[in-house]
Amino acid sequence: MPDYDYDLFVIGAGSGGVRAARLTALGGKRVAIAEEFRVGGTCVIRGCVPKKFMVMASEVSHALEIAEGYGWSFEGTKFDWPTFLEAKDVEIARLSGIYAANLGKAGVDLIHGRAVLKDAHTVEIVGKDQTITAERILVATGGRPWKPENLPGIEHAITSEEAFHLPELPKRILIAGGGYIAVEFAGIFAGLGVETTLIYRGPNILRGFDDDVRAHLAGEIEKRGIKVILGCQHTSLEKTETGILNHLGNGMSLETDVVMFATGRVPHVKDLGLDAAGVKIDADGAICVDAFSKTSADNIWAIGDVTDRMNLTPVAIREAVAFHETVYRNNPTAFDYEAVATAVFSQPPVGVVGLSESEARHSCPGEVDVYITRFRPMKYAFTGSDERVLMKLVVDATSQKVVGVHIVGPEAPEMIQLAAIAVKAGLTKAQWDATCAVHPTMAEELVTLREKQSPNTNAG
Fold this sequence. Notes:
Elements: E1 6-11, H1 15-26, E2 31-35, H2 41-46, H3 48-69, H4 81-106, E3 109-112, E4 115-119, E5 122-125, E6 130-139, E7 143-145, H5 160-163, E8 172-176, H6 180-191, E9 195-200, H7 211-223, E10 227-230, E11 234-239, E12 244-248, E13 253-256, E14 258-261, E15 265-267, H8 274-277, E16 300-302, H9 313-328, E17 342-344, E18 350-354, H10 357-363, E19 368-375, E20 389-396, E21 402-408, H11 412-425, H12 429-433
Parallel strand pairs: 1-2, 1-6, 2-3, 6-16, 8-9, 8-14, 9-10
Antiparallel strand pairs: 4-5, 5-6, 7-15, 11-12, 12-13, 17-18, 18-21, 19-20, 20-21
């Protein structure tokens, strides 16, 4: 049997890679992990965590507006961008340090550098004249933002990664994209007082989400002062003395200080050496894997965004656990991607689990029952706000199982985590109805919806 330097070598120290490395090392195996940037990966360093801090910072302005309706008054309130950036960066550094420390405690060797596959058992650490062999290799390099490099003037635009480190808060920003990253950053900048425009080439934002959710959120974010331009995209960008001129396909020209492209993410496989190791990728550049995350190479696995299956941090962690169970505990485990809850930290936020109405009508064997409500939350009773919450249940009429839950409104991400338990368990609408409400809450609407929407009703 060949004598390898390690039993497992992990490329990429994001949430998935770190979990797999720690579990395997704690099981007594020799494990190393390589990271070219900072330990923690996209989520901790340049994704979910810093973005959530930005969301919370930007929500304060709306909270102050609500507070005035309850009798509070404020003078001289202001937001200081450099102060926030410093606090955010200190916390991110702390979290990254915890990830690194936990790897060390588990006995994982952490290598700071870019690892490239030389063959199926060998990696090279670029620029360090270091070659390492391993019996098994796990690729967990995540994804990176994509932008149209052939667009004239694209060099003047930033992506979400640069948005976390802008030297100063712009007065005007245009965000191109209609997915969750674009919508979230639009809410962030608008909440911080930036004149914000969102453009998207499609007919509505959040493609792939339930149509009622998409229509409702589009209306609600406009109430927060975000200008939404649909069915439109850039033709070019032009740098001027006073900003960046956005030339749009509808003939409009709009000048802003910053242009941010949030037009999707792609698997981070560039110059990784996959060909040399016999690892196949698909037409979109994602590493091809089977249900157990195994690649086309017998001893190489891949998890997380680099496989482009379900690009969520908790999913990558579950895939890491499944990998460990399969490979090192003789317990073949495939992660179940059905009924995984997700949240969009827009303003207001979105929480979703299960099927959209359209998906249910295509996949359920018979008819689909839909229960939907829109209402002003109690929180806004004194403020004069016309913001509305949307809640929607999608039910398989034959089995009466609740197969989809969709919420747009305050605390939607918190509610959807618990609703996901019921959907995952396959509970029926009658069981939801039998659950006593907690009053007064928004969440009680989820167990008090009784009237089915008429099939002929246009709920959008």
